[in-house]
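Sequence, please.
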């Protein structure tokens, strides 16, 4: 997928309407501009926006409410900087689906990155896998800043073909170890990893990162419709398995998939993170709205 197809004009208009609602709980502490949640410190009033359920009541401008009858909240520019790190799983399993899961992951990463850059924050693309010899973090692009960094961010998103296998927990630990300051860490993956992923996610939270999980799956992985005898090959390891897909086998798979979803959902609730599950055939605007709302699907 080329950088030109990651964000179409209609999608960008939706992102512009949503970007002011994107709030990040982690703070990096470097010089920069963003809508600050903290009180005190060096902050300059930026603008008002309409109050929405869940907003901090301490940020409501009660004088403006008294004048107009419309509740609004204050946004400030503060002398802090925020980094939104977009960790994309580029293992071979992400090449599956119609469209492929990797394309959906890239479009969503482009959307999240756009909202960060349009808010004068920084955004950075990190890739796990995509090389046979690398099972952890394989590429770390430079952090982009502001609207002027969008073209570079889109180029960063379009250069890795899915291949090989990934130890997502290892990649997460490498991201945390190589990040001088915490920020928002968005993990885009199918999470089909047998390793201790949630343990690594917990270490990221303990290190101060604001973690968001985006699970990208194909409709056929949610509702399998196979029947008969198959010779299956693991896209990441090359191992083959002979299996008869009957009702009991499908039920066992569905239960295992539901267990993975519940594990991610429970982890997100326990650690104050968000978890959004997206099927490759659904419109992405709704996914972005759930992401901004910090949903736990």
């Amino acid at each position: 997928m080329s950088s030109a197809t990651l964000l179409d004009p209609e999608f960008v208009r939706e992102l512009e309407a949503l970007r002011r609602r994107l709030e990040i709980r982690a703070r990096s502490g470097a010089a920069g501009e963003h809508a600050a949640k903290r009180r005190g410190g060096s902050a300059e009033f930026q603008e008002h926006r309409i109050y929405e359920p869940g907003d901090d009541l301490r940020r409501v401008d009660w004088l403006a409410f008294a004048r107009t009858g419309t509740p609004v909240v204050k946004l400030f520019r503060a002398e802090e900087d925020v980094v939104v790190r977009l960790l994309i799983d580029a293992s071979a399993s992400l090449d599956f689906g119609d469209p492929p899961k990797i394309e959906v992951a890239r479009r969503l990463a482009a959307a999240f990155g756009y909202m960060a850059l349009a808010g004068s924050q920084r955004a950075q693309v990190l890739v796990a896998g995509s090389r046979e010899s690398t099972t952890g973090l394989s590429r770390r692009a430079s952090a982009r800043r502001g609207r002027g960094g969008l073209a570079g961010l889109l180029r960063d998103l379009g250069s890795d073909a899915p291949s090989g296998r990934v130890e997502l927990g290892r990649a997460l630990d490498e991201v945390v170890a190589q990040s001088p300051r915490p920020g928002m860490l968005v993990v885009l993956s199918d999470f089909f990893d047998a390793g201790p992923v949630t343990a690594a996610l917990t270490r990221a939270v303990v290190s101060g990162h604001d973690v968001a999980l985006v699970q990208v799956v194909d409709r056929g992985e949610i509702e399998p419709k196979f029947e008969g005898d198959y010779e299956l090959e693991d896209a990441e390891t090359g191992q083959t398995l002979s299996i008869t897909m009957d009702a009991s086998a499908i039920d066992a798979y569905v239960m295992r998939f539901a267990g993975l979803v519940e594990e991610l959902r429970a982890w997100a609730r326990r650690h104050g993170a968000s978890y959004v599950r997206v099927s490759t055939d659904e419109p992405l605007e709704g996914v972005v709205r759930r992401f901004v709302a910090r949903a736990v699907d």
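Residues 35-78 form one domain.
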